[in-house]
Specification:
Helix content: 25-40%
Number of domains: 1
Strand order of the largest sheet: 2-1-5-6-7
Structural class: alpha/beta
Number of helices: 6
Order of helices and strands: HEHEEEEHEHEHH
Largest sheet: 5 strands, parallel
CATH architecture: 3-Layer(aba) Sandwich
Distance between the termini: 45 Å
Number of strands: 7
Shape: globular
Length: about 160
């Protein structure tokens, strides 16, 4: 199922990445080999406050884990979802209820209904994109190397010759 481009707009992605300070990762795994853990580690290393949301864990990556978004005692800028798409609808409702700034649905987490709920609640929405990859593309090393310039060339810049 193709994802609407409106949920993958570079301007929205960049605004979220630049303005966010706190990222609640719903489905953050304590397993270091899982993608959610790697994204959490990356986000922490790049200055975001990571808030794990996993009802099965008390602590992940040295951070207190919360059973749900409603249990987090502070405002969350981004709700990053690593759950089955069927869970995204309820997570979107919770994100609206807690006043989050954005709902970010990771690769494969595709739910138009969750996106509509979040948008109607005033949240920015990104769907079927990875927080870590988009950060690297627009702010991190991929950006520094020119991967987001949309210019493909075999020529080396003069300063690298």
């Amino acid at each position: 199922m193709p994802v609407s481009r409106e949920y993958q707009e570079p301007e929205t992605i960049q605004r979220i990445l630049h303005q966010a300070r706190t990222v609640a990762i719903v489905g953050l795994s304590p397993n270091e080999l899982r993608a959610s853990n790697f994204v959490g580690f990356y986000a922490d290393r790049h200055g975001y406050e990571v808030i794990p949301v996993n009802p099965r864990e008390d602590e992940i990556m040295g951070f207190r884990s919360y059973p749900s978004l409603e249990d987090i005692p502070k405002t969350v800028d981004v709700v990053d979802v690593f759950r089955d798409p069927s869970a995204a609808i309820n997570i979107a409702r919770q994100a609206v209820a807690v006043g989050a700034g954005a709902l970010w649905l990771q690769f494969g987490v595709i739910s138009d209904q969750a996106a509509e709920i979040a948008r109607a609640g005033g949240l920015d929405v990104v769907m079927d994109r990875c927080f870590k990859i988009e950060h690297a593309r627009y702010i991190g090393r991929m950006h520094w190397l020119g991967f987001n310039t949309r210019v493909i060339t075999g020529r080396r810049p003069a300063h690298l010759l």
